[in-house]
Amino acid sequence: MRGLTRRWRFRIEAGSASGENVRDRLLAARGFTDPEEIDRFLNPTLHGLHDPSLIPDLDASAERILKAIAGSERIVIYGDYDVDGCTGAAILVHTIRAINPAAQVSVYIPHRLDEGYGINAEALERLAGDGAQLIISVDCGITAVDEALHAKKLGIDLIITDHHNPPESLDAMPDAFAVVHPRRPDSAYPFGELCGAGVAFKLAWRLATLNQGSEKVGAQMRETLMDLLALATLGTIADVVPLVDENRAIVRAGLARMRHTNIIGLTTLINESGLGGSRVEEESVGFKLAPRMNASGRLGHARETVELLLSNDASRCEQIARELTKVNDERRLLCDRIQTEAIERIESENLASDDRRAIVLADPSWHPGVIGIVCSRLVEKYGRPTILLQREGEICRGSGRSIDGFNLHSALEACSEHLESFGGHDMAAGMRLNSSSMDLFTDAMIGVANDRLSLGELTAVVTIDCQATLAELTPAVVESLKALGPFGRGAPTPRVLLKGLRVVRTPETMGAHGKHLKIPVEQGGVHAKMVAWSWGEWRASIPAGATIDAVVKPRLNEWRGRVTVDPEVEDIQVRTGSGDSIESPVIVTSPSRCPS
Description:
Number of helices: 17
CATH topology of the largest domain: inorganic pyrophosphatase (n-terminal core)
Oligomer: single chain
Number of domains: 3
Radius of gyration: 25 Å
Distance between the termini: 31 Å
Strand content: 15-25%
Structural class: alpha/beta
Largest sheet: 7 strands, mixed
CATH architecture of the largest domain: Alpha-Beta Complex
Number of strands: 21
């Protein structure tokens, strides 16, 4: 089946999920039929978290950190400049200070543009000169082989904590004091999809219990760990790791904690983002909190984000939160400009044709701090891996985003002869190359994509959980679907198929320049207004009186105390008079819903 913008695919064959109600059918479609398994899924608890000691080198790292605290050694947390790295760094600082408020611990965040991603030798030398004796990386370091050796020469004990793709063999890992990674080649840890902040939280948890000498910690430390779950949740959602297994438990608990956190800066940011008094949900993190936290690292320096998460000065936190909002507004405008320019080039130069199954573009004016966001938007629009770079003199540096089924990190390995450096994971990566190698790299990357991707894989697909009717989507039912959350990668928002809807009136445009649509529909005497974000261009394709099938996300809308179900459109098929659907002559992807 194909709608106006995507191919449709049921989660199970023919959409035959059984159940008396929509939620039962959704659960069955996702493989949950056993009552006990359903209960564990709907009610994830922290008791389901895996033992942190199962992660290789984690216990040795915790013991070394406690020794450094007791010996008043200078400890530096070396974090990455994104939300994951900043929250992970803050997690370890809060933990160390909770163990000993007088501990000599500080944070170092490299500058995205001046230093680039990961541990660098120059920073190690500066930190050693300032007296650092123990450095703990967060969300970076798994490929820092030369840097680990340099740390040893400087007399520094380096503990690496990371979650990015590790080497295939132990011999290829950095020779550091410890390497804490859930997917090390020798790891027996049962869950490999933690983000950097998640790994940091596991280390923090073990620090707390080891310091206590018991699996149970005191009330004050427990409060600290609960606050740290909120930080780990920010990193987990922002880094788009799968929200399954213990990530699901972390995010469920962390979202609940955000309204009651003792971390002043987090509360301030929540209020500054317009979420004061409301429930903080995963979309709030992805579209409001995380973009603000990332903004400083993208256009300036991420140390302000870390300061916000560590400061006890309410006035200073308010100042930082306001500045993050301002910078994020600038970032949004910059992203829009780059996106427009990239689309113009792609369309005018036919760079998304069948024989070009990846997009690779460079421009001197594109800010390397934000092009990763634009990559995500272009992936949604064109349905193929995308790499954007800033060409600055002899150097090109940039970011890439991928589609399901195409391992971007592996593709970069296949093109590594044209790269100076690269790193990342299956779905996202960063790279640096000489400008003279740009054409060779472009040809090589497109060649890899052409070999590994079929044309069918480039057509966007919307996965449908089950069929439903408007009558079934009552406010109570839609509210009950929230229990299937948190939603994200690996646990998508429920999508249902509504068949045989009648378009009551011509869809109304909403927003600036008529960008969005409100589509009034009726089915069996039940009326609803479907909301179609960024669907303004399709208004003429959905005439009044037409019979349509629609894939929607069930949503609630509250206005002046009245709650209604306003389904959010994912895709639509317009039927012909014979009842058949119209096949769109042009395949395009659905409108972008990337964080703005």
